[in-house]
Every structure is written in structure tokens, then in C-alpha cells.
Write a structure and sequence with these properties.
The protein is an alpha/beta fold and about 170 residues long. Helices cover about 35% and strands about 20% of the residues. It has 5 helices and 6 strands, in the order βαβαβαβαββα. Strands 3-2-4-1-5-6 form a 6-stranded mixed sheet, sandwiched between helices. Helix 2 links the parallel strand 2 and strand 3 (about 75-80). The longest helix has 16 residues, at about 30-45.
């Protein structure tokens, strides 16, 4: 895999439901979401995942997920506004140019954005493949460069429960 790079696409973990007085951007992870993320980080570590940086959406639930993953994998977290919900996948990919020297990046974001990003990475079209991400789900996509030029190769796609099992 020399010269190849890995992107880990991650949907934030389970978040509290929307409720009066709390804006969508401020929703936090549930206790279960936090616990599962800690175990999932252990699972990623057992799988040999090494990251240069974790990039996160500006929304609180994604930032919490990113911090817990980064703590378990001993890596820095960087807020990356291009991961905000509704950002076009092509713009997100271009925004990764500043990380061109990285060998592997984790991108923590939201659904349907992660599924559309995976589709762009694999076949060049955000709607060609349906790849819905459940909370905490991770896809490992091998690419030739950052920013990626498609197509990439899906190495694996695991639920947070699978990663938690590996980490427990």
C-alpha cells in the first residue's frame, strides 16, 4: 500500500434526541454513545488503525465523537467546517488539500453526508451507491492521494457495535 492513503469516514455516535431549547448543533452524545465510542476507539487501535489527525464537523455531537476517538488513538482533533451537514462532497474533498502529506485521516461527520462522500470516493457520484451510515459506523477507504482522485477502494465498513466488540 506504499504511496496509498486511508480515509476513515465516521458518522458521529448516538446523540440525544432533539428537544425544546437545544439547537441541533448543540445536541450531545448519549451516555451509551460515549461508552460505545470509547470501545470503538479500542477496536480501531486493535485493528492497527493509525491516524495523522481527526477532522470533525463543527457540531457538538461530532466533536465529542472525534475527541473520544482521538483520545483512544492518541491523535489531534481539528475542527473542519467543510464537514458541517449539507456540505457538498466535492468541496469537502478539495478542502483536504492542506492535509496532503497525511497518510491517514479520520473524517467525523453526519448522515447522509458520510454515505454520499463514500459514494463519491468509490464511484465519483454522490448518489450512485447507497451507503447509509448508522451512528458510529466507520468506512475505511483507500485512496491514491489527498485530496483524493476517485475511485478509491473500500477496505472495510464496520458498525460501532462491531468495533466495540473488537475493543472489549
Amino acid at each position: 500500500m506504499e504511496g496509498r492513503k486511508l480515509l476513515y469516514l465516521i458518522r458521529h455516535a448516538q446523540a440525544e434526541r432533539a428537544r425544546a431549547g437545544v439547537g441541533d448543533a448543540d445536541r450531545t452524545l448519549t451516555r451509551e454513545g460515549r461508552e460505545d465510542t470509547v470501545l470503538a476507539a479500542r477496536g480501531l487501535k486493535r485493528l492497527g488503525v493509525k491516524l495523522d489527525v481527526v477532522l470533525t464537523s463543527p457540531l457538538r455531537r461530532a466533536q465529542e465523537t472525534a475527541r473520544l476517538l482521538a483520545l483512544g488513538l492518541q491523535v489531534d482533533v481539528v475542527r473542519h467546517d467543510a464537514l458541517a451537514p449539507g456540505s457538498p462532497p466535492d468541496e469537502l474533498l478539495l478542502s483536504l488539500a492542506e492535509f496532503s502529506n497525511a497518510a491517514s485521516l479520520a473524517l467525523v461527520g453526519h448522515e447522509p453526508d458520510m454515505g454520499r462522500l463514500a459514494s463519491v470516493l468509490l464511484v465519483g457520484d454522490p448518489l450512485r451507491i447507497e451507503m447509509p451510515f448508522k451512528p458510529g459506523q466507520v468506512a475505511a477507504v483507500e485512496v491514491g492521494a489527498i485530496p483524493p482522485r476517485c475511485p478509491g477502494l473500500l477496505r472495510w465498513f464496520a458498525t460501532q457495535q462491531q468495533l466495540s466488540f473488537i475493543g472489549s
